[in-house]
Structure formats: structure tokens, C-alpha cells
Specification:
307 residues, mainly alpha, Arc Repressor Mutant, subunit A, three-stranded antiparallel sheet, two-stranded antiparallel sheet, 13 helices, 7% strand, elongated
Length: 307
């Protein structure tokens, strides 16, 4: 009887104070003193989005604090409206934020400044993102109370978060990049980028750079990179400095993102022939057959003889 009454009271309370769907995440008040708060707004926006999408418990092969995500998904989620115009961050901007998150620490744990905020691993449909120390920062027990009247039962309440719907177990560990992958990327470059200096040796520094890029990009992205570079007049040396790109320049993080974003595509104006200032040349040019040319030549010769 008591249980029935308690259940009835609980249901009535829930009706009066309905739960907010989707669960919640925790952010420390000290985030305002962290490095990410000093960065442009997009950095914090991406970070909060990743926290919101991460698993709060093990689910379908994903551990706590992990999520599958793609760059286009982050772009769409972090877009905003300016009046009626939708502004979407570029791939390069998202890549830069992820790169920063992989190298920086949020700053809550002063005992370990080397802790990164996330690690990323390439997956078939995007990236597997692992939020470092997720279990620590998302546990209410690890935070000081806001006041003496805080309800301990609320602090122990289990959180519910929406499950990412991009589940893919075919994950490639960035620590185990095969030798064939390095050779494949080098071969792609030498086969596609015929206008650039040929790559003859894969040094340790180049392998390290390739390995780092593979945390975010795929071999198909490298193929696209080399194809776009080969089709760019600017990157091939047609610029005021006579400078041309190299393999090392192309695989640099910021440069790779800019090339893939299309920053070095040939402009349509460059493809157009310059307009002549000579009024005589502005007349449409006639085309003559070989017979017509012979007749004209004969007529000019005859005219010269008559003169």
C-alpha cells in the first residue's frame, strides 16, 4: 500500500515537474578560466557538441566518452544563422579545432598538464572520438558542492544521453599505420602530381606527418588533395613569386585543409582570354578554307601586277 502511494506521489511530482529529455552533461565553472574559453567561439561550440554526443555508458561497441562523428556532421551542428543567412564553418576550421583539442588540456586537472582533451581514430564513416577522462569530468562526485543545501540524491542520479546513430566497428588504429599505406600515398602523389617535384624518399618526418594526417583524413582524401593540387595553376608555379608547392607543403595540416576546401582552385577570370584594347581586333575573325585562301592570295598577286 505504501509503495503504491509513493509511486502515485512520484508520478504526480513528475507531472508537475517534467524531466528535460535527452539527459545532460557537466561543465565545471572553472571552464571560464581555461584555454578553450580564450579561443574563438567555435572551439567551445565544437567541444560542447562532442560532449553532448558522447556515450555516457558502454553501448554498441562504444565505451563511455566515445562517439562516432564526421566532419560534415560537426559543420552542420555548429552552423549558425545571421538573419536569414546560414553560416557554416569550413572543413579547415573544424580540422583546426579538432587538432587543437587533440593537443591541449582543458585545464581542470593541474596534476597532469599533458592530458589531451580528445584522441581521434579514423573509422570507415568518419572519426572515432574519445574524450579523455570523460568518466572523471562527467561524474558529479568529483565536483565541489554549490552550497550546503545541495541534494546528494540528485548528484547521484544517472544521466541519460542520446545515442549516436553512426555505429561502425570497423576502426583503424592510428598507432598501427601499415607500411603499405605510406607507400600507397607516396605512389598516389608521384602518379597524380606530375607537375611537382617527384617524391623519392619517405623519411621518418614525412611518415610522422602522414600518420598524423591519417588521424582525420583517409587515403581517398590524399588522392583528392593531389588531384586538386595538380589542377591548380597557382600551386604549380603560376604566381608572382614563381613558387610551387611540394609534397611536404601539401601534407602540412593547415595547407591540406585549405587545398581540400578549394582555396587554390583556378579562378574563372584566369581562364578567360584578356580583352584586347585594339579596336581592329575586336571584329569577329572569319574562317577561310584552303581554297578560299588560295583565291585571295591569287587576287592579291594579280592586283599587285596591275599596279
Amino acid at each position: 500500500m505504501k509503495n503504491a502511494i509513493g509511486k502515485c506521489i512520484k508520478e504526480r511530482c513528475n507531472l508537475n515537474n517534467p524531466l528535460i529529455p535527452g539527459g545532460y552533461i557537466l561543465l565545471s565553472r572553472k571552464i571560464t578560466e581555461s584555454e578553450i574559453f580564450k579561443k574563438p567561439p567555435l572551439y567551445l561550440k565544437v567541444w560542447v557538441y562532442l560532449l553532448s554526443c558522447a556515450q555516457h555508458r558502454q553501448y554498441k561497441g562504444l565505451k563511455k566518452g566515445q562517439l562516432y562523428i564526421s566532419i560534415p556532421e560537426i559543420q552542420e551542428a555548429c552552423s549558425h544563422m545571421v538573419g536569414y543567412r546560414k553560416v557554416t564553418p569550413t572543413k579547415a576550421q573544424i580540422y583546426n579545432v579538432l587538432e587543437w583539442l587533440r593537443k591541449r588540456c582543458e585545464g581542470y586537472d593541474e596534476s597532469n598538464d599533458n592530458t589531451t582533451m580528445i584522441t581521434t581514430t579514423k573509422a570507415t564513416h568518419g572519426l572515432l572520438v574519445n574524450i579523455e577522462k570523460y568518466g572523471f569530468y562527467q561524474n558529479p562526485k568529483n565536483y565541489e558542492s554549490n552550497g550546503d543545501n545541495d541534494n546528494e540524491k540528485n548528484a547521484k542520479a544517472e544521466r541519460e544521453q542520446r545515442q549516436p546513430d553512426n555505429i561502425n566497428k570497423n576502426v583503424k588504429n592510428d598507432k598501427n599505420v601499415k607500411k603499405e599505406t605510406y607507400s600507397e600515398i607516396a605512389e598516389l602523389y608521384n602518379t597524380i602530381c606530375l607537375s611537382f617535384p617527384r617524391l623519392t624518399k619517405l623519411s621518418d618526418a614525412r611518415k610522422k606527418a602522414i600518420k598524423t594526417r591519417l588521424n582525420i583524413y583517409t587515403t581517398d582524401d590524399f588522392k583528392k588533395l593531389f588531384t586538386m593540387a595538380e589542377s591548380s595553376d597557382f600551386l604549380k608555379g603560376k604566381n608572382d613569386r614563381n613558387w610551387s608547392a611540394t609534397f611536404d607543403w601539401l601534407i602540412k595540416d593547415s595547407n591540406m585543409a585549405k587545398v581540400l576546401d578549394g582555396n587554390y582552385k583556378n579562378s574563372k577570370q584566369a581562364d578567360k582570354k584578356p580583352k584586347s584594347t585594339n579596336k581592329f581586333n575586336n571584329f569577329p575573325q572569319r574562317e577561310y578554307t584552303s581554297q578560299q585562301m588560295s583565291d585571295i592570295e591569287r587576287a592579291l598577286i594579280n592586283k599587285g601586277l596591275e599596279d
